[in-house]
Amino acid sequence: xxxxxxxxxxxxxxxxxxxxxxxxxxxxxxxxxxxxxxxxxxxxxxxxxxxxxxxxxxxxxxxxxxxxxxxxxxxxxxxxxxxxxxxxxxxxxxxxxxxxxxxxxxxxxxxxxxxxxxxxxxxxxxxxxxxxxxxxxxxxxxxxxxxxxxxxxxxxxxxxxxxxxxxxxxxxxxxxxxxxxxxxxxxxxxxxxxxxxxxxxxxxxxxxxxxxxxxxxxxxxxxxxxxxxxxxxxxxxxxxxxxxxxxxxxxxxxxxxxxxxxxxxxxxxxxxxxxxxxxxxxxxxxxxxxxxxxxxxxxxxxxxxxxxxxxxxxxxxxxxxxxxxxxxxxxxxxxxxxxxxxxx
Length: 344
Ligand code: PMP
What we know:
Elements: H1 10-13, H2 21-24, H3 53-63, E1 70-73, H4 76-87, E2 94-99, H5 104-111, E3 115-120, H6 129-134, E4 140-146, H7 158-167, E5 171-175, H8 188-193, E6 197-202, E7 215-218, H9 221-230, H10 238-247, H11 253-269, E8 276-279, E9 286-291, H12 294-303, E10 309-310, E11 320-324, H13 328-339
Parallel strand pairs: 2-3, 2-4, 4-5, 5-6
Antiparallel strand pairs: 1-7, 6-7, 8-9, 9-11, 10-11
Helix pairs in contact: 4-5
The structure holds 4'-deoxy-4'-aminopyridoxal-5'-phosphate.
4'-deoxy-4'-aminopyridoxal-5'-phosphate binds next to helix 4.
């Protein structure tokens, strides 16, 4: 029994998971009359592998993980929802999130009828360990940290995240959606070795597969077993898995290096503009920028055909736009549009 075993909702601990036809027999040859599929082969008439063995093996080889420590979901958003369903009793337990951060933690909490306690980050989006742990009580099951954080862009120090894991008696979720753009490193190896850390990653960002919807959770074998039992049996489609396998053959390091270089180019260029107040340091593929009049600049850019994210109504982000780093020529277009912006 680990530290998290008593935190699992009793109905989940007692769950008899659905057993698919392919759990009983998954050999390659034979006459398959077991799953009520159509026998007419169009490439997709058979259900996909519910254990996603081939894609897991490929991702594990790329990332140095073990399959029993890896969950694959329909985007990392699926994993976020699953941890609420596994660890939080609706109407009783709570989760602690930082602000500003990725909005889905709060939405998934609300969907699951779980109260959220919000801990504001500091002026430079730094994390106050004591404030975070001070917000937790005996019913706090989950603590969500996003590093590099969306929308601020900064990654938190690894040692600080590990100290929080050591001191928090519940489950710590560290969302590393943007980790490939950061030099501060991943906690994936630590997540396999600890009992209360779940690291989320995704193929949607640096791996350029947002349209396929494939997210990952890396954790102890116990947590991964629970997530695998609670997910829909066929949560990843055959089409998505096949396409991901093919796309994973092409390395993305070159693209990531360009995006990091472009991020730094934009970060150096933006403070030149009189209406730019602050460019926050970023370890991700976007920049949070505080400007004189975020709504006006947003509207101006939109009129030029450049769509950015207006975060100015998000707590801690007054006056801020979030700019995703694009292709070099797209970033040039952004800078040109900013040159021609008339700010009174
Ligand atoms: N986590 C963070 C921090 C994100 O910003 C996003 C997407 N914007 C996600 C998770 C969702 O990723 P996925 O496409 O894997 O669901």
